[in-house]
Amino acid sequence: MASAASPTRPAESATSLETIQRELTAFARRARATAARMHPELSLVAYTILAHLEEQQGCRATDLAAHYLLDKSTVSRQVAALERDGFLERRTDPTDHRVQVLHLAPRGVRSLAAARVRRQETFKERLAAWDPADLARFADYLVRYNADAAAHP
Amino acid sequence: MASAASPTRPAESATSLETIQRELTAFARRARATAARMHPELSLVAYTILAHLEEQQGCRATDLAAHYLLDKSTVSRQVAALERDGFLERRTDPTDHRVQVLHLAPRGVRSLAAARVRRQETFKERLAAWDPADLARFADYLVRYNADAAAHP
DNA sequence: TGATATCGTTGCACTCTACAACCCTCCTGG
DNA sequence: CCAGGAGGGTTGTAGAGTGCAACGATATCA
C-alpha cells in the first residue's frame, strides 16, 4: 500500500470505489477521538468553527450551519459555549439587528494557534515519508471529493 | 479544483498538509449524516461493525474495539442493539467461556447487502466524472494515510 | 490455590445532533 | 402605513454515541 499509482484497468474502478468508501469511513470514525487527543481544549466542531472564523475574518452562525451542513440550533449552542468560554465574541450587525457577526476573541486566537501547531506536528510526523508531489495530489483529490460530495448529496 | 496534479514546489507542502487536514475533517463531520441518508436502517457504526463481521467471518467485541479505537463499553452496547434487532448473533466460544464470537445473522446479511448497494450507487454517482486512474490513486492515498495514522497515534 | 489478566456488562455523565416551536427584526406589497 | 412573510437566532425536547469506572465471570500462571 506504499506506492502511489496503481495499474488502472477499467475492471478496477469498482475496487477503487470500495476502497475509497472503506478508508474514508474508517477515517471518519477516528476523527473525533484524534481531535480530542491533539487538542483537548477544543472539540472537533469547536476547532472547525474557530478556524472558519479566522479564515473568513468573522461570519454569521447561519453561514457556519450552511457550510458545515449543521442545524442552526447546533451551531447556536456551539457558539454559545465558545462565547461563554471566551473563545469568540458576537457583534450585532449595526445595519441589521437580526444578525450577529462572530469574531475570534483573544483566547480563541491563542487556542487556535496552539491547536494548529499540535495538528501540524501530528500531521507532519504522520506524513513525513510522503513525497511532496503525492501530498499535493492527495490534497487535490480530497478537495475534489468533498466538492463532488456537496454537489451530490 | 478539478485537475488532479498540482505543481509541487517544496514550499507547498505545508499548504498541502493544511488542506488535507481541513478536507478530512470536513468529510468526517458529514459522514454520519451521509450514512444516515444512504441507509437509515444502519448507523455508520452499525454498518461498520456488520461489514467487519462479514469481512472477518466473525470476530470478538474486543477486536472491534481495538480495530476502531472505541471503548469496549461502546462496542458492547452497539453489539447488544444489533443483536436485539436481529442483525447479528453471539456464539460463546466453547474453548473460552469469556469470549463471544459475533456472526452476521440473516437480517444482518440482507441489510448489509442493501446498504452496500445504496453506498455503491451514491459513490458511483458522486465519482462518475473521475478518471479511473485518479480513483485508483486516491484509493491508494487513503489506504496509505490511514495506515500512517494508525502507526502514529 | 491464590493472584493476576482478559472479556464483557452496566451505571453514570457528557457531548453532539436534529426537529419543532418560538421570538425578534427586516422587508415588501397592498 | 402596516400586515404578513421571510430570515436569523434561541430554547425545549429527545435520542444517539461515547468514555470512564466499577463490577462479575472466566481463564491462566506461579
From TrEMBL, chains A, B:
Residues 17-147 form the HTH marR-type domain. One of its GO terms (biological process) is response to stress. SMART domains: HTH_MARR (SM00347). CDD domains: HTH_ARSR. It comes from Actinacidiphila yanglinensis. GO terms for molecular function: DNA-binding transcription factor activity. PROSITE patterns: HTH_MARR_2. SUPFAM superfamilies: Winged helix' DNA-binding domain. This is Transcriptional regulator, MarR family. Pfam families: MarR.
